[in-house]
Amino acid sequence: MKSALKIFNNKKKFGILIAILVLIILLSGLFTDLRFSDEIYHFWFAKDWYIAGERPVYNELLHTVPEYGYYRYYLSVPLWHYELKSIFNLSGNISKNLAQVYMAVWYILLIFGTYLLAKTVYDEQLGLYSAFVVATMPFIVSFSILFFIDVPIAAVTPYLIYFVIKRRYILAGIIMGLMFLLKENSYSLFPASCLLLLVNSHKSRPIKLTKRFLQVMLFSVLVLFVTLPNFKFRLDNFHGLLFPHDEGAIFVSIHDMLKHEVQKPEVPKPEVTKPVEVNYLTSSLTSFPTFFKYFGLLFPPLLLWRIISILKYKDFHKMEVFLVIYILIYIPLYLIAFQGWWEIRYLSPIIPLLCIFSVKGIRRLKPWIHSIIVFVGLIMFFSTTVFLYLERQITSSEKGIIELIKKLPDGRILSPEPFISFYTGRPTIWTDSFKYTPGMSLYEIFWDDSDIKKERIFKDFKIKYIHIPCERIYDDMKVRHFGGYPKSFVERLPKLSFVKLVFDNKDMSIWQVE
């Protein structure tokens, strides 16, 4: 039983363990395919940047309709993509394997940053415990393999707070600015940073409030200075700073939004606003089973025990104020910003803080429980990597579809799966891109009963093929949304005179629009 405790009393042994976990993370990524929507989008952004030699504005193959003046803009803040593009420049080629190494580096940075911050708040042993909880959490393991930006932004957060605690406001300002360029939910960390820089003062050499206020101003100016080029790029290319909150949407300027020229179309009842959950990576905080798929079996009970220990033993460390303030300010802003669709992964900036906060009560547990913690953490890690290995594969059926599409005559494809465009080089389009766009009635092909209108919409959008993955078909007698194909629409296709089936198996079908 005591052997498990030795891991957290010996940095060398702990380092070997982490090295093994990093290697498994890397191998899991190297031997799987780009498969999920967001990771394809982010890799594609870096790829297009490398090919063009300058930051691209839009993706010409994905949800872009030039005849309507509609383009799928690359709206993401660009730091991750710029760094990956720079790696491509150094290597001289576009490499998915290099991108996997890049993601593994972020995983290492997160583990070390969590250790550093926890060591600063508590001590070295709890620093190692915190790093272990973070390193084995399914949430972190999943997004250290996939090309999502959630682990990179989580990786930077501990360093920001470390420098805020140390009152290195210049370094903190630069890091905060870089976070603004990494993922936009980092904006919610800015208020807590300003507040703590203002109220925090060294005991050995107290700092006057006036001086602290000036330092906060300098911190804010540095954040703006680092972020300014991106804001300028948006103004120059998109003529504004705000965008609608759906992927693939056309740019909407602040002026238009204030004039209410952009109306959200009504979806026929019954309606659900959240997207279809085709995998656990797109799930809300309100989905109870998915909560444990993300956070695993270690963090929730450790957090609960930590809260109990505070209430029962008054066991609250004064340095924990830094963690608590960031958490308590971030969560309400997160709930407000995402307005009812609270994807768990958007909590990523505070995940290391929550893990650090949760481990303090671990010393009140018996040694055999510590051994269980290590065992459960490793089981979670290995089960998550196996799950991702199986999920992140282009199946033989999908490979067949890709090859078939390459052989078909050119034409735009209606498909909810970006990998079709990515692997075939053919333009695809999806109804979700146009749900907030005036005059763009593509979504009506699902809801309108008129076959004539369906034919006209297909013609207007120059859609030649319809790609239907079976997992994306849902029962629209119970719910309607933009995340997949309504069952009623799919069942009606054989009755439409202007479409014909060209491929069908248990996983998907392709229809040609004539």
Could you characterize the architecture of this molecule?
- The chain folds into two domains: 360 residues, no CATH class; 118 residues, no CATH class.
- Helix content is 56%, strand content 6%.
- The chain is built from 22 helices and nine strands.
- The strands form three sheets. The protein has a five-stranded mixed beta sheet.
- α19 links the parallel β3 and β4.
- The longest helix is centred in the middle third of the chain and has 30 residues.
- The chain is globular and about 80 Å long.
List the helices and strands and how they pair.
Elements: H1 2-7, H2 11-30, H3 37-52, E1 58-59, E2 72-73, H4 79-91, H5 96-121, H6 124-136, H7 138-145, H8 150-165, H9 169-180, H10 190-199, H11 209-238, H12 254-258, H13 288-295, H14 299-313, H15 320-338, H16 351-359, H17 367-391, H18 396-407, E3 412-414, H19 418-424, E4 428-429, H20 444-447, H21 451-460, E5 463-469, E6 473-474, E7 485-486, H22 487-492, E8 499-504, E9 508-513
Parallel strand pairs: 3-4, 3-5, 6-7
Antiparallel strand pairs: 1-2, 5-9, 8-9
Helix pairs in contact: 2-5, 2-17, 3-4, 5-6, 5-7, 5-8, 5-16, 6-16, 6-17, 7-17, 8-9, 9-11, 10-11, 10-15, 14-16, 15-16
